[in-house]
Write a structure and sequence with these properties.
Length: 122
């Protein structure tokens, strides 16, 4: 489970991240990145969105969120992707193609999206 300090919950935080308009996407999901951090001590907050358009059953939508959440949790725990720590907030929005994917494919998609976002600032 993702630590409480890393969860993006407030509607205002979601809206602020969307308004930043720093977006990357691939065939499985879309990533919205918030502002770059000025204070490196505050944790990055991550939110996950799976709409009813993806699947009408909540169990399927929740499974997708659990897979994405676990993937991010492991990346943060192992500090495998230091790019994550550069942003105040990240929002991952699932697309319909993610339904039958396993965790390795979701990991690859997250890596690709984070690299796309990082390359926009270079």
């Amino acid at each position: 489970m993702l630590k409480k300090e890393n969860r993006l919950k407030a509607k205002s935080a979601f809206v602020a991240t969307y308004n930043n308009k720093n977006v990357a996407s691939d065939n499985l999901m879309v990533l919205y990145a918030g502002k770059l951090k000025t204070d490196k001590n505050c944790p990055t907050r991550v939110g996950f969105v799976v709409s009813k358009k993806i699947h009408k059953r909540a169990t399927k939508r929740n499974r997708i969120k659990r897979l994405m959440r676990e993937s991010i949790r492991l990346f943060i725990k192992n500090n495998e992707i230091p790019i994550i720590n550069n942003y105040k907030s990240l929002i991952f929005i699932a697309k319909e193609e993610i339904l039958n994917k396993n965790i390795e494919e979701i990991n690859n998609s997250i890596l690709i999206l984070l690299n796309k976002i990082a390359n926009k600032y270079i």
